Amino acid sequence: MNQPTTLFDKIWDAHVVKAMDGGPDAVFIDRHFIHEVTSPQAFDGLRKRGIGVFNISRTTATADHNVPTKDQHLPIKEALSRHQVETLRKNCAEFGIELYDLGHPFQGIVHIIGPELGLTLPGMTIVCGDSHTSTHGALGNVAFGIGTSEVEQVLATQCILQYKPKRMRININGQLGKGVTSKDIILYVIAQISASGATGYFVEYAGDTIRGLSMEARMTICNMSIEMGARGGLIAPDEITFEYIRGRRFAPQGEAFDQAVEHWRTLKTDEGAEFDLELNYNAEDIGPMITYGTNPGMGIAVDSHVPNLSEIPQSELASYTKSLAYMGLEPGMELIGKPVDYVFIGSCTNARIEDLRTVAEFVKGKTKAEGVEVWIVPGSVQVSNQAKAEGLDQVFLRAGFELREPGCSACLGMNEDKVPAGKYCISTSNRNFEGRQGQGARTFLASPIMAAAAAVTGKVTDVRELV
């Protein structure tokens, strides 16, 4: 009788080309996504060695991090961003890789275009020179971010040397409360175990709460696995997954799709399979979340308070007080009512069509508060086109929200979309590090509906009071 096996082990072991005693595994990679930030040195390495890309059909390139989100038909103004994007264009042309460049109908944030195009499928191994590659794991695959030297390794061989992570399962069961979303689930979990609590693990999310989520909501959860130190996160594929994939451009079609689904149904953790660590949470304990500090683990329910100094371990007091000083906050204070200057709804965490629909439904008939700047940045051209086809752009226009063009935007401030120093931004992105959204910018992470509530009130608001 076969030993019960976890979903992660099934996928990983099926892709090991060579296992080395005491060393890393050589793992075959099904899909390699690249963008303009982490690929230039990798291509230079190929040139120096006089070799090409091993399998261009398994390599997908797009421009996302450095692209402007206004006037994308014009040359990029910012010199560094322009150089990065132009270098990607030259490298893709030289090595024969198709590029979803500005103006291309498939252009967008790398972790959003993969699933929406059907390039991301259950059972795959997927890598990209970007930590939030874990997003793709929502479709039931092993996806993780890699460094620039590893990008070169995959371009050259279609394989990567990796030590196998430990296995963790996080079970969430129960009914989510009013105004609570998948973003709140993952912010809650990270707050419970800290920004390093899953270091060395690959996390499987399970439980009836997870199974009840849409595909796009699952992507939000897997996206932020890295924010608790995990190597990646994944969710077993099910009927919701299969229906999401059905008919997508590069997914199997017709009979081939039906055959694929037969295999995908086997991709689940066996009864009795062992994890190195297993955690359990109740959905009823989760409220609308917001961060107060400078890492995603510093999060609280919006109706709670910033922890008092007595609640912080002695070993963490110095970093804690430094974080609050940067954020301009005091121990013990409540965040409800705190004025905000910017609202950013976008990023690979929350810039899919479902996110935009949720925000549009909430703000219909409302207008933004005076003095608040609101940016809505779709995750891809396809999301943007869908939003316009559904009339969401008109809802945003009437509310005073600015709907921009696709890109990573103010998630990371590598482009023109930066929050000014000292200003407060409620953001649907994944990181609130010092300077992440611009030098001196102060970031509160929250769900799209929490961000929308702040946009119309001009301050941190418990969304449950408005829905």
TrEMBL record:
<dbReference type="GO" id="GO:0003861">
    <property type="term" value="F:3-isopropylmalate dehydratase activity"/>
</dbReference>
<keyword id="KW-0408">Iron</keyword>
<dbReference type="GO" id="GO:0046872">
    <property type="term" value="F:metal ion binding"/>
</dbReference>
<feature type="binding site">
    <location>
        <position position="411"/>
    </location>
    <ligand>
        <name>[4Fe-4S] cluster</name>
    </ligand>
</feature>
<keyword id="KW-0100">Branched-chain amino acid biosynthesis</keyword>
<dbReference type="InterPro" id="IPR001030">
    <property type="entry name" value="Acoase/IPM_deHydtase_lsu_aba"/>
</dbReference>
<keyword id="KW-0479">Metal-binding</keyword>
<dbReference type="InterPro" id="IPR018136">
    <property type="entry name" value="Aconitase_4Fe-4S_BS"/>
</dbReference>
<dbReference type="Pfam" id="PF00330">
    <property type="entry name" value="Aconitase"/>
</dbReference>
<feature type="binding site">
    <location>
        <position position="348"/>
    </location>
    <ligand>
        <name>[4Fe-4S] cluster</name>
    </ligand>
</feature>
<dbReference type="InterPro" id="IPR015931">
    <property type="entry name" value="Acnase/IPM_dHydase_lsu_aba_1/3"/>
</dbReference>
<protein>
    <recommendedName>
        <fullName>3-isopropylmalate dehydratase large subunit</fullName>
        <ecNumber>4.2.1.33</ecNumber>
    </recommendedName>
</protein>
<keyword id="KW-0028">Amino-acid biosynthesis</keyword>
<dbReference type="GO" id="GO:0009098">
    <property type="term" value="P:L-leucine biosynthetic process"/>
</dbReference>
<keyword id="KW-0004">4Fe-4S</keyword>
<dbReference type="InterPro" id="IPR050067">
    <property type="entry name" value="IPM_dehydratase_rel_enz"/>
</dbReference>
<dbReference type="InterPro" id="IPR036008">
    <property type="entry name" value="Aconitase_4Fe-4S_dom"/>
</dbReference>
<keyword id="KW-0432">Leucine biosynthesis</keyword>
<dbReference type="InterPro" id="IPR033941">
    <property type="entry name" value="IPMI_cat"/>
</dbReference>
<dbReference type="InterPro" id="IPR004430">
    <property type="entry name" value="3-IsopropMal_deHydase_lsu"/>
</dbReference>
<keyword id="KW-0456">Lyase</keyword>
<keyword id="KW-0411">Iron-sulfur</keyword>
<dbReference type="GO" id="GO:0051539">
    <property type="term" value="F:4 iron, 4 sulfur cluster binding"/>
</dbReference>
<comment type="pathway">
    <text>Amino-acid biosynthesis; L-leucine biosynthesis; L-leucine from 3-methyl-2-oxobutanoate: step 2/4.</text>
</comment>
<comment type="subunit">
    <text>Heterodimer of LeuC and LeuD.</text>
</comment>
<feature type="binding site">
    <location>
        <position position="408"/>
    </location>
    <ligand>
        <name>[4Fe-4S] cluster</name>
    </ligand>
</feature>
<comment type="function">
    <text>Catalyzes the isomerization between 2-isopropylmalate and 3-isopropylmalate, via the formation of 2-isopropylmaleate.</text>
</comment>
<feature type="domain" description="Aconitase/3-isopropylmalate dehydratase large subunit alpha/beta/alpha">
    <location>
        <begin position="9"/>
        <end position="458"/>
    </location>
</feature>
<comment type="similarity">
    <text>Belongs to the aconitase/IPM isomerase family. LeuC type 1 subfamily.</text>
</comment>
